[in-house]
Every structure is written in C-alpha cells, then in structure tokens.
Design brief:
Elements lengths: L2 H26 L6 H29 L3 H17 L6 H25 L4
Length: 118
C-alpha cells in the first residue's frame, strides 16, 4: 500500500462507515412503520446504500485494495434485500460491509502510523 492509497482508504473508510451506520439504523427503524411508510423509507434507504456503494467503488478504483470489492458485494446484497421487500435481511450485509470497511481503515491507519504520517 502506498501512502496515497492509505490516505484515500482511510478517508473513504471513515465516510463510508458513517453512511453504513446510518443505513443500518434506518433499516431497523422500519419495524414500526405502516406498509406505505415502509415502502417510501425503503426507497430512500436503497438510494442511500447506492450512494455508499458508489463511494466504495470509487475507493476501490483509487486505492486498489481488493477488500473494497467485498464491501461493494455486501452493499449490492443489502440493496437487493431492501428492494425485494425483505429489508430485515439487509443489516446482515450492512454489518459485513462495516466490518470490511473498519478493517480497511485500520490497515490504512497502521500504514500511515508506520510511515510517521499520522
């Protein structure tokens, strides 16, 4: 990992983690909604997961860390669950993405600390 890749990975990881936490909390909030409210909320959260996925794809292109592809896969699965009406299954995939993103950020931070850049 180069210094530039580490910086990109760290900044993208922090941004994506925030979005993943928001999306997970939102999906868990669907339980108390009426069917009509839930349908609208699912569309909003599916869009947000799509934006988070775009950020992960960008991080993969810029940082070239193979683990970003796993994050994208988890996000795609979460979107399918949300759009298919089984949003209750999405947190499993969102949590998987969060674990991967946390690991990416940790590795990037360790690299930058070793180089004395952080």
């Amino acid at each position: 990992m180069t210094d530039q890749e580490a910086i990109i990975s760290l900044t993208q990881a922090e941004k994506i983690k925030a979005g993943l936490i928001w999306a997970s909390q939102s999906v868990e909030g669907f339980a108390g909604m009426s069917p009509a409210e839930r349908k609208g909320a699912e569309k909003v959260v599916a869009g947000m997961v799509g934006m988070i996925s775009a950020e992960a794809i960008l991080a993969n292109r810029l940082g070239n860390d193979r683990y970003w592809r796993q994050v994208v896969r988890h996000l795609e699965n979460a979107q399918v669950m949300i759009r298919s009406g089984v949003a209750d299954e999405a947190p499993f995939h969102l949590t998987g993405a969060l674990q991967q993103v946390t690991d990416i950020g940790r590795r990037a931070m360790e690299h930058l600390k070793e180089k004395g850049l952080l």
